[in-house]
Amino acid sequence: MSMRRWLYSALIAVPLVFVIAGPVLARAAPAERATPFGPSEWSPLGTDRLGRDVLAAALTGGQTFLLTGLLTVLGAYLVGFLIGMAAAAAPRVWLDDLLMRPIDVLLCIPSLLIIMVAALRGRGSAVVIACAIGLALVAPIARFVRAAAAGVVHGPVMDTLRMQGQSRSFRYGSYAAREISRPLAADFGVRFTAAVYFLASANFLGLGFDTTSTDWAVSVAANKDALLIAPWSVVLPGALIVLLVVGTNLLVDDLLADPRAVAAKGLRRAGGHG
Fold it and tell me: What's the pLDDT tens digit per position in 84-126?
C-alpha cells in the first residue's frame, strides 16, 4: 500500500479508535463533575460547559455521531438509488419525467429549510431531523445515480446484451453494477460529508438535539462560546469530525481511482523525470 493510502487510513483510524475503544477507555474517567471550562484531574484537556472531562466526552460521543450519519446516508442512498436507477432504465420518456420532475422540485427547496420545518413539526425529535436530512439528500443522490447509470444502461455493451436476450441475466446486471459502483462509492463519501454538515448545522441552530449529549457535533455547538477560554472542548470533537470526513473522502477517491487514469498519470510523471 502506498504512503498516500497509509496517510489517509491514519486520518480515519484516529476517530475510529475513539468510536470503537472510546466507551471502554472513558470508564476510567471520574463520574463526578468539575468546574465548567476548568482543569480536569483525568486529562490535560480540561472540562466542558457541564464540567465533564473533554477527553472522556469525546471518547463517548463518537458512536452516536457516526451511527446517525451513516444510517441517514444509507437510508437516503437506498431511496435515491432506486429512483435514479428506475429513471435511467425507464423505457419511456414520460416515465423518466414522472420520476425525476418531483426530484427537481425537491432540489429547489433549501435543505436547511426542510430540516427546520421537520424540527418544528416533529417537536425537535432527533429521528425526525435525521429523516429530514435524509430527504434533503435523496434528490441529489437520485440525480447523480441517474446520470451515472444512464450512459451504462443505454450504452453499446448493454444494447448488445439486450440483443442477445440477456437483459435479465446475471451478466447483464453484473456489468451494470461494475460500471457504476466506482462513481457511486465515491459519491457516497461526498453524501456522508453533506450529512455531517447538516447534522452540525442543525445542532448550531438548536433544532431539538439533546444539548447535554456528548455527541461530537453537539459538543462543538454547545461549547463554541468558550472557544477562547477552553479551546479543547471545541477543537477536539471538531478535529475528530474533520479527520473522519476528510480521511474517508481521500481514501475512497484513492481506492476507486480509475486504473487507466492512474497509469496515464504515472507515465506522464515518468516522462517528465526522463
Answer: 888 887 878 888 888 888 898 888 888 888 888 888 787 767 7
Lowest mean pLDDT among 99-108, 173-182, 192-201: 173-182
Render 89-148 in DSSP notation, one character per residue.
T-SSHHHHHHHHHHHHHHHHS-HHHHHHHHHHHTTT-HHHHHHHHHHHHHHHHHHHHHHH
Q: Which of 152, 160, 154, 158 is nearest to 184 (CA)?
A: 152
What distance in Å separates the CA atoms of residue 223 and residue 231, rounded to the nearest whole number?
9
pTM tops 0.90:
no
Query: Burial, 272: exposed, middle or buried (Cβ in 10 Å; 0-12, 13-18, 19+)?
Result: exposed
DSSP 57-71: HHHHHHHHHHHHHHH
Between the alpha carbon of residue 84 and those of residues 70, 118, 149, 173, 186, the distances in Å are 20, 25, 8, 16, 16
Dihedrals phi, psi of 53, to nearest 5 degrees: -60, 130
Q: How many C-beta atoms surround the C-beta of residue 162 within 10 A?
A: 14
Q: Which residue has the cell 420532475?
A: 101
CA 234, distance to chain mean position in Å, is 21
Cell of 51: 464540567
Question: How many other C-beta atoms can be found within 10 angstroms of the C-beta atom of residue 70?
Answer: 12
Closest by alpha carbon to 48, among 224, 257, 252, 241?
Answer: 224
- pLDDT tens for 127-172 read 888 888 999 999 999 999 888 887 776 655 555 655 555 555 445 4
Task: Give dist(CA 237, CA 243) in Å, integer.
Answer: 10
Roughly what angle, to the nearest 10 degrees, separates helices 93-108 and 54-88? 150
